[in-house]
Amino acid sequence: MSRASVARGIATAAALAAAVSCGGAAGAGDALHLAIINDPILNAVIAPDIGSILVNKIVFPGLVRPNESLEPEPDLAERWEVSDDGTVYTFHLRPGVVWHDGAPFTARDVAFTFDRIADSTTGTLLWSDFAPIDSVRTPDSLTVEFFLEAPYAPFLTLLGHNAGIIPAHAFPPGASLRDQVAFNRSRPIGTGPYRVSESVPGSYLVLTANERYHGAQPSIPTIVVKIVPDVNAQVAQLRAGELDLITLEPALLPGVEDDPDLRIEQVGVPQHYYVGFNQDLPRFEPAAVRRALMLAVDRQAIIDGVLKGHADYPQGTIPIVLRAYYAADLPRIPHDTAAALALLAEAGWRRSADGKLRDQAGDPFRFSMMIDKGNPSREQAALAVQQDLARIGIEVTLQTLEFSALVRDYLLPRNYEAVLVWWNTPLDPDQYSYYATDQANNDYGYSNPAADSLLLAGRRAVDPEARAAAYRAFQAVEAEDPPVLVLYYPRELQVHRARLSGIPRLGIRDALRHVERFRLESR
Amino acid sequence: MRARAAPGLVGLALLLAFAFLGPLMHRTSPTTLDLANPTAAPSTEHPLGTDEAGRDVLARLMHGGRVSLVVGVLAGLVALVVGLAVGGLASARAAWVRTVSSRLLDAAMAVPAFFVLLVILTLFGTGPVTLIAAVGATAWMGIARLVRVEALSLREREFVSAASALGAGPLRRFVRHLVPNLLPTLTVAATLGVAQAVLTESALSFLGLGIQPPRASWGNMLTGAQVSLARAPWLAVLPGICIVATVLACNAVGESVRRRSSPVRE
Amino acid sequence: MAGALRVLLRRGLQAVVVVWLVTTATFVLVHAAPGGPSVLADPKLGATERAALERELGLDQPIPIQYVRWQGALLRGDLGRSFLYQTPTLSTVLDRLPNTLLLVGPALLLAIAIALPLGVATGRRPGGTLDRLVTAVNFTSLAIPAFWVGIVLILLVAARWRLLPAGGMVTPGAGGSLVDRIRHLVLPVVVLALPLTAELLRFVRNGVMAEAVAGHLAPARARGLAEGHLLRHHVLRNALLPLLTALGLQMPILVGGAAVTETVFSWPGMGRLGIEAALGRDYPLVLAITLVVAATVVTVNLLLDLLYAWADPRVAVES
Predict the structure, then answer these.
(1) What are the φ and ψ backbone dihedral angles of C44, each rounded to 5 degrees?
(2) Do residue C14 and residue B103 have CB atoms under 8 angstroms apart?
(3) Which residue of chain B has the CA closest to C151?
(4) How far apart are the CA of B205 and the nearest CA of chain A, in angstroms?
(5) Per-residue pLDDT tens digits for A321-336
(6) CA Rg, chain C, in Å?
(7) Residues of A with CB below 8 A from B125's CB?
(8) Which residues does chain A have within 8 Å of residue C175's beta carbon, measured at their own beta carbons?
(9) Which of B172, B23, B4, B193 is nearest to B93 (CA)?
(10) Which residue has the higher pLDDT, B26 or B5?
């Protein structure tokens, strides 16, 4: 659920790349070079940022991983059962799995991992994902039972998201995870298809295929993960043949489109970009006003013009990539200025002679909208929103801030009028903590009793059909009473050299859970 | 030494006129998006075409010029004033004043200015006022040091010893005797300072800490243009030319003033 | 001799005070700013996690107490742990320092090697063809943003012609041969040296020219001293003085230039680390980098002052 970590921003979360080693490791044949934007912390439990998360996806598998239908498939767990009431999950671990250092992988490691996750003082970012876990038991060395406080439908998906399993034997009892500098920075021990064999701070990591990997043997012997903080530098290195694969913002596409040796893939990802309105302010409290604002913004123009078509038109807050839950049958909410003005008039806002929208007291409808700096797509989307709202007499001033300042000083204390931000979620529709009344991540003050009960029903539903029904109903509620103004569902642009194949059609984060399938034609 | 300053001055005047008078003739908004019309070729409506988001390039160049020039000149001025003051104090006759301000200067010199600039801007935001203050506040050390070194060196020579023998006070000595002798150095430093500030803004823009879009500056236009360098190189070339022209003009003015006031004339 | 030693000791002590001043000022600056470290700004962090993290990082304490703790740790040689990387900051910084020196050193040498002879030559014959040419090139290279030169070089030399690598310090996994390292070094060194050379050249040329027109040479020449002697004893000394001044001025600027160059070329140096630390508001790392850089620059300045006194006896070392 991380809104991709922070200051580095998701803009640069277009951060993964791969490349061809020009020199060629001695006798190792061609290597696949991946690039991230910062030195990673090689520990799945305390990984703080996108760079770390990407490498950890390779090094630290979880109990399950998402397949191309976005459903959990076995990874470290061979199979599992869920109790009828949805509160007990029993995992049967794959036998014979060994850690990179040769030690056997057992239920104790799983219990240790979730014990650390449950301790918020470790500095883990996974705590709230797994807060519903009541206890973890290990009846034998290959069985793990999770007892949940209440049914928690996203549980399996979350296990396959960022919850990589770390080895109990590598950490002295009682020691802080953060103190394990050697493990965290250069010599992590995982169970993944590759192990870290060399780490040069600020420069690169070399990952070597793990011959004892529990799944299919990796096809590529070596992966080099380069640290390339500047996105334009990533593009240049890709073009120079020093990188094989990067993910890009649409704004950067012109830099790669003319290279015949590059392939561009579009993959739907579970993200929604939106304008959030502070509903503590009376102005944004009426549902009619928020729906009117949605009608007033020409979202198709933003998708075509700003994102060059590489995004999907939004319905509600549940992105289209979650096909099983997306309410495709609901009528599309169009760009309709007249309808917007009519709704605003009902709410008491009328256009005065000067064209400005004013309430009965004559006060104009104006607000300031904050955006994080440094991302051209969001910046231009914000300008487009500003222009569209100016057309119906609403004056929007833009305020550009560093992302961490925006979140910490304005969003979280709810000290803002409007913000343009986004959520980057696991492959699950659970949005209870974002849009249910008074929940931890509901930074907008949105409150709708029907939405609350549907979101809770969706979170607790054991039956998949019932779950889907709850979320479809939630989207119908959202259409009338939008919690936020969703602008678009972006697609991830993966640009790779033609000789690289075998990448599953998943966002890069999830695709890396299947990195052993990647293939590299030798040159 | 006839009209050597002319090219630089004319250049600066042209750039200023372009930035400040230009928008009066070309009244297109620099921030209005025309999403259906990106990277368009020049037309009567957009004399220099449009950028990636369909914004008018000419208008952005003009408004960006205002921002870049104002930031450059004001930041350069801040640096000059602070540098002169600290440098003057650091070469004062009173030992304790000299020591304290010299240590202050040493401390400031020891800090990598650009790094402090980054810290200030990330911590305190990137508004134009912060930017001017921060760029100025991190660029005065060179000037102060020059002033100190030159002043110390000059004082050892005859000018000032004679003046102090005649009983002139420290401030009077500084203003009447040292400053005129420092003028060549100061002019070079000041014009360089303005040029440097314009360049600094562009480097900051590259790191995302300069003037923030949607407000245009030459620096952020240049940075933004690297995306489409292959397809629309003019988007980079135009602001680039403006930056280079500004720096060249400033340096030319400084250079000619330096020559003009140097003791021996051609 | 003892006097000189005492002066040196005194200046050393002053240098320590300067470094302490710098770090304290940075501490105040960092903590006076609104907001907090970016690791705390993840919107997904719940109140529980955020509070726990603040406690873990020691940020829940009042600032004066944080300062005292930090000073205490500093005396023990402990500069704390980076928020971003979870590593001891001092070793993190010192790991990167050699990489930056590897970049700055050659750039400095290249710049001096070009600036000194060209500066002397042009300063002695101002207005000549060489002078006009060099001045023109000089002015232009001072006027172009260095990061832009880097970007264009990467696009042409690395991406289009594939002559040199686009970034990094070595080809990963290739064993880091000398040739490979030099290939990686060429573009960033050129970019870093370009404005530096121009700046040094300008100072040297002006210094030589000022002394020449000040009329010290004519009498010497009239006394029949050989040109070689003149060059060594008058011109070179007059060129060194401004060169030293310019070097002193350029040191901190060079660190900034290195930061930008390192970012453009994905160079794992200290400058880039500094940018990451500043952007991530990684207080301990920001403070450690400031400390290391300040100590380096102070030392260099001290050396320059001594050299200065040697080069221009008119400026006595303050005692």
Answers:
(1) -80, -20
(2) yes
(3) B226
(4) 9
(5) 999 999 999 999 999 9
(6) 24
(7) 401-402, 405
(8) 23, 26
(9) B172
(10) B26
Please state whether beta strands A395-401 and A366-372 pair in parallel, antiparallel, or not at all (unpaired).
parallel
Q: In angstroms, rounded to a whole number, what is the distance separating the alpha carbons of residues C78 and B35?
A: 54
The string of pLDDT tens digits covering residues B179-215 is 777 777 777 788 888 888 999 999 998 888 888 877 8
B94 near C CB under 8 A: no
- The CA-based diameter of chain C, rounded to the nearest angstrom, is 85
CB-CB neighbours of B115 under 10 Å: 26
CA distance A452 to A433: 10
Kindly report, residue by residue over A1-39, the tens digit of the pLDDT: 344 333 333 333 333 333 333 333 333 348 999 999 988
> CB distance from B7 to chain C under 8 Å?
no
Q: Per-residue pLDDT for C270 more than 50?
A: yes
| Nearest C-alpha in A relative to B208 | A374
Mutate to test the interface with C, among A237, A246, A443 (most CBs of C within 10 A): A237
pLDDT in tens, C245-264: 778 777 777 877 888 899 89
Residue A520 gets which letter from DSSP? E
Distance CA(A357)–CA(A351), nearest Å, equals 4
C147·B141 Cβ contact <8 A: no
* Percent with pLDDT over 70 in chain A: 94
- DSSP class of residue B190 equals H
Please tell me the predicted confidence (pLDDT) of residue A11: 35
pLDDT of residue B92: 76
Which residues of chain A are under the pLDDT cut of 50? 1-29
Q: Please name the residues in contact with C45: beta carbons below 8 A apart, sequence gap of 6 or more.
A: A125, A128, C53
Helices (H), B26-165: 57-90, 95-110, 113-124, 128-137, 140-156, 158-165
Q: Which residues of A218-246 are buried (b: 16+ CB within 10 A; e: fewer)?
A: bbbbbbbbbbbbbbbbbbbbbbbbbbbbb
Closest residue to B35, CB basis, from A258, A304, A398? A304
Distance of CA B207 to the CA centre of its chain: 18
Note whether B243 contacts C: Cβ–Cβ < 8 A: yes
Give the pLDDT confidence score for residue C223 in this predicted structure.
64
Preferred mutation among C16, C131, C142 to probe B, highest tally of B CBs within 10 A: C142
What is the spatial distance between Cα C52 and Cα A128, in angstroms, rounded to a whole number?
13
Confidence of residue C290 (pLDDT cuts 50, 70, 90): confident
Contact A469, A367 (CB under 8 A): no
The per-residue pLDDT for C210 is 75
Rg over CA atoms, chain B: 22
Mutate: best of A119, A242, A272, A273, partner C, most C CBs <10 A:
A242
Confidence of residue C217 (pLDDT cuts 50, 70, 90): low
Residues shown for chain B: 266
Tell me if residue A120 falls in helix, strand or coil. helix
**pLDDT tens digits along A415-448:** 999 999 999 999 999 999 999 999 989 999 999 9
- Long-range contacts at C136-142 (CB < 8 A, ≥ 24 apart): C137/C198, C138/C198, C138/C201, C138/C202, C139/B248, C139/B251, C139/B252, C139/C198, C140/B244, C140/B248, C141/C194, C141/C195, C141/C197, C141/C198, C142/B195, C142/B247, C142/B251, C142/C195, C142/C198, C142/C199, C142/C202
Burial class (CB within 10 angstroms; exposed 0-12, middle 13-18, buried 19+) of C181: middle
The answer to whether residues C245 and C203 touch, using CB atoms and an 8 Å cutoff, is yes
Q: What is the 3-state secondary structure (H, E, C) of B247-259?
A: HHHHHHHHHHHHH
- Residue A74's pLDDT is what? 97
**Rounded distance between C-alpha atoms, residue A441 and residue A431, angstroms:** 9
- Categorize the per-residue pLDDT at B221 as very low, low, confident or very high, splitting at 50, 70 and 90: very high
Sort out which chain B residues have CB atoms less than 8 A from A305's CB and list them: 33, 35-36, 38, 53-54
- pLDDT above 90: residue C2: no
